[in-house]
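User: Fold this; tokens only.

Assistant: Input:
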Amino acid sequence: MSGAWSISPSRKSWWPTEVRLPSVCSGPAQSWVSALWLSTQSRTQARCTGRKQTKPTSLAAALPRCRPICTSQISSRWPRRTTWMQCTPATGSCRSERTSPRPARMLASGSLGRAPRWSARWEIKWRPGPSPSLQELEENYNRAYSEALAAFGNGALFVEKFIEKPRHIEVQILGDQYGNILHLYERDCSIQRRHQKVVEIAPAAHLDPQLRTRLTSDSVKLAKQVGYENAGTVEFLVDRHGKHYFIEVNSRLQVEHTVTEEITDVDLVHAQIHVAEGRSLPDLGLRQENIRINGCAIQCRVTTEDPARSFQPDTGRIEVFRSGEGMGIRLDNASAFQGAVISPHYDSLLVKVIAHGKDHPTAATKMSRALAEFRVRGVKTNIPFLQNVLNNQQFLAGTVDTQFIDENPDLFQLRPAQNRAQKLLHYLGHVMVNGPTTPIPVKASPSPTDPVVPAVPIGPPPDGFRDILLREGPEGFARAVRNHQGLLLMDTTFRDAHQSLLATRVRTHDLKKIAPYVAHNFSKLFSIENWGGATFDVAMRFLYECPWRRLQELRELIPNIPFQMLLRGANAVGYTNYPDNVVFKFCEVAKENGMDVFRVFDSLNYMPNLLLGMEAAGSAGGVVEAAISYTGDVADPSRTKYSLQYYMDLAEELVRAGTHILCIKDMAGLLKPMACTMLVSSLRDRFPDLPLHIHTHDTSGAGVAAMLACAQAGADVVDVAADSMSGMTSQPSMGALVACTRRTPLDTGVPLERVFDYSEYWEGARGLYAAFDCTATMKSGNSDVYENEIPGGQYTNLHFQAHSMGLGSKFKEVKKAYVEANQMLGDLIKVTPSSKIVGDLAQFMVQNGLSRAEAEAQAEELSFPRSVVEFLQGYIGVPHGGFPEPLRSKVLKDLPRVEGRPGASLPPLDLQMLEKELIERHGEEVTPEDVLSAAIYPDVFAHFKDFTATFGPLDSLSTRLFLQGPKIAEEFEVELERGKTLHIKALAISDLNRAGQRQVFFELNGQLRSILVKDTQAMKEMHFHPKALKDVKGQIGAPMPGKVIDIKVAAGAKVAKGQPLCVLSAMKMETVVTSPMEGTVRKVHVTTDMTLEGDDLILEIE
């Protein structure tokens, strides 16, 4: 007997008000379907019949020239409702009116199916709401016909009696050649999806004994009537009132026979073989009076289907297979073993799991435990869905029916498997085969030894300035800083130091190691700068770790020292303007995650941008440290643009705006001791109660002298870095400042001996980042910074870029061009992003051999870098002294110009809508922090989420493993979390296979694991079907592996959203790929009968 197939174009409910019964047709479209309409109570009926001869070429072809043969009036009593139906000979239609209509029922080849939820002008009219189109009906008709024809050789569709929310009960029978028939009781197969059984139970829970007797008796009678031999199943539907309806007989042993064997202790396979040999049931010891029910058994079919994608079949190689076993668990395996390849051409069943217990709840508990112990990696399975079924209270109560899955959408709230170990093996294998995943500026290997972490005392760390902040708030904190005796230090090692020296590449893994030592030994620090600036996007972009998680974890390890971040005013931690609500929300969430002090600056000292950042930080409850970006030389009377008065006027405005602390941000290290004395003493005289904080870089080598001069002039805090992370383009040496102020009124109170140990750790850690170390190309600082005014971090980056572009020998020219570019743009304050604008223009001039005079003269014809054009348009604000003319007019011509604060005209971003979009793409576990990351860096965040979803928690790997992977035969440990440690050994890498892959072998916790890794270099020389890029709108990829059986559009065709594009077939299931958008088909990349992998490009729409 064939299986059931339903037409279900929509998940909405559609209820009939007019039914046109299929009738005998003449002409080319001959009679092709038989239909039967029954009332619910079977009191009267309208019946239309016809013999199946040929299937018309399309549904539409069957519509004309149909001769109605059905006429009668139906009056039937529906449960709690009355239905009246009039069938009219002239039209062949049957009209019905009822207070709450019931759906019709669709059958395929004699088996009961689901409510069709389908419509067409020729077949059924529906109410209420809009109707699906004729094209939708025809498409779903064709899918049902095609699936039935392919599976059973018969595609006929039947309309038959509808029974609302029945139970699907089947009785196992066994007969011999001598007329002996017995039953082995029933199974409940009501839990179904697409009419395919998912979970089977024996015996049926809460089944009335009298109904059980009727079911088994009717089954035996039926078998005896036809002289049935061997094993078989008689299937019934049971309605709410206990009435049973025969469906069919499956004349074979079914997949779910196992539960019957468990409760009856009868080996059905053994029995049917002996029956086929001619033995009788009594000879086998099988008599009805001896068959008894013993407990309860449940069977779950573990398949390679993805419940999150409508149970689409998944294919691929099983990398890991571990089953759940134990007392009361039986496993019937199919193709479940490590290394097995799941093909789209065969059934998706991996293994049948059967649990036997004394009752239904006990069996369910055993099954749940067994499924939880399964580990299947490499392909998706339905195990999470099965676990939800087993934990459902309706299931545990034994009150399920065939609508159970449809009526419990919470079953699809799937808890994704972490699969951390296997993902990490994939990452390590990828690095071993293809090299580092983060760009490497120079070829240098990480140090083979890990840094030594100094001893940390047991117990909580001593109180620090953060305890004052938490107790007295930002104002009290500022007073405590100002009243403090001695010089306070801010340690930049956790951010600006490695941003300047190591391209911002230091990972949270290495910061966490030293964090407890810092908490216990440097409690007298003013703060630790550990967040903001470039660290935010680099963490996601190159290190594949969450910047918010870095903040959270460090906060837990260092509870006593204030954290400080760099906030780019209205640009937050980005390089462009954002809606104001994004900046405010960012500061709020940063404060909630442990940030304390917000150093707010603007690259042009543009006051509207500064004020917005200050307001956002202050409203979040943070300490506002407004920063004045410093350039020029206040001690040089010839430098009139950025004079002492300029800085004093800026300070006045910032103090009036309510800053808690005032900062001088000397990002290029231009402050000389005399300038320090002039500027800081003037500020101290003007604002005696305001804490002053000075930031500089040591590019020239005079950083320590400059900071000592600032301290003597009245500064409260200066910035330093660990000795081994100081100097050059970083901050001045912590040890030098501590030693120079020791036993003086400026004594920092920091133990010098602890600084030595701290420096030793960072010296070892710095060796891990040899490929990013500025010393690879730059051997010392340079006092020419006083002329070119290149900020510390940018100085390092320009040096790297010059070498990577083959301009290493011309770096002197790059620095000279930087000076000229700066003057062309009007002598800017240079800090991100304005410094990048000057740098882009300088490199543009060097690459094109342009002097300043030539660039200005040819400005109307040159294609300047985008950053330069947008600066001149006003996208980052208005520079002090205005824009350079006539350069601006020549470059912009008719391009639009921004007036006032760039972000003021941006509408608020709908963060709730963004969160919904992220959940749709990345799943339920989207945090408020994720929303802000996506708001500021949408593309970077999307890539980060996709990368970590593929390769797992990379922050658990050591830095050497992260950058270059393990060596063959190397053994190492990876701690996923406390108490969960992986023991891994790299074993071997295979030769290249025909698919462009290499097999990488590992030993994980004593067990062999292997993964396949695509060799990206080798694949460049091989031809493969292109993949659909998720970020490119209009590229339509295969939702699952399978064969193309129908292509419904051609290049140049116009398509509507939701229109069918092609049909894929896999594992006996056909899937229609529909258009996600309206447009025109640009190119079709597939042909009929082509076999595709998941995400293979099908076509492009524009």
